[in-house]
Design brief:
Blueprint lengths: L7 H14 L8 H11 L7 H15 L5 H14 L19 H6 L4 H17 L4 H12 L3
Helix pairs in contact: 1-2, 2-3, 2-6, 3-4, 3-6, 3-7
Length: 146
């Protein structure tokens, strides 16, 4: 942790988010980076809703082809329909993906970086294989995504 209270990983995340928020276009890649970072850096001290929503976002993007705006809307729909729900923390795997924020930032800006964001998302999502079924079921029941 640095003097400002942020880890090096959080500083890199902020740099990536500054970049992704500045990108125009319908894909809204920023949403994928939010979900990948949350899932990759999750801890049992986090609120379960944060981790569940991050995993749902990765699932919807990678398995169902949702773009970032559609994932964002799905998050809002999940939140609106479950205001009183007590979310359960999924099991957090020890390994959370070999690709890190630094790897994404090391790729050239533009299409290559967008591709690297997807590689990062896949790297994280694969590590949560044990809960894929639960996340798919949640999205089916709550969002009607089969």
């Amino acid at each position: 942790m640095t003097a400002d209270g942020m880890t090096d990983e959080e500083k890199l995340r902020d740099k990536l988010w500054f970049y992704t928020l500045a990108q125009a276009g319908p894909a809204f890649v920023h949403q994928y980076t939010v979900d990948a970072f949350a899932a990759q850096n999750a801890s049992y001290a986090d609120k379960p809703i944060k981790v569940v929503f991050a995993l749902a976002g990765l699932y919807l993007h990678l398995e169902r082809g949702f773009d970032g705006r559609q994932v964002q809307r799905a998050h809002m729909q999940l939140a609106a329909g479950n205001r009183e729900r007590a979310w359960t923390m999924p099991r957090l795997p020890m390994e959370r993906g070999a690709v890190r924020v630094a790897d994404v930032l090391a790729s050239p800006e533009g299409l290559e970086r967008e591709v690297m964001v997807d590689v990062w998302c896949s790297s994280v999502w694969q590590c949560y294989e044990e809960v894929h079924g639960e996340i798919a079921e949640l999205c089916a029941v709550e969002l009607g995504v089969w």
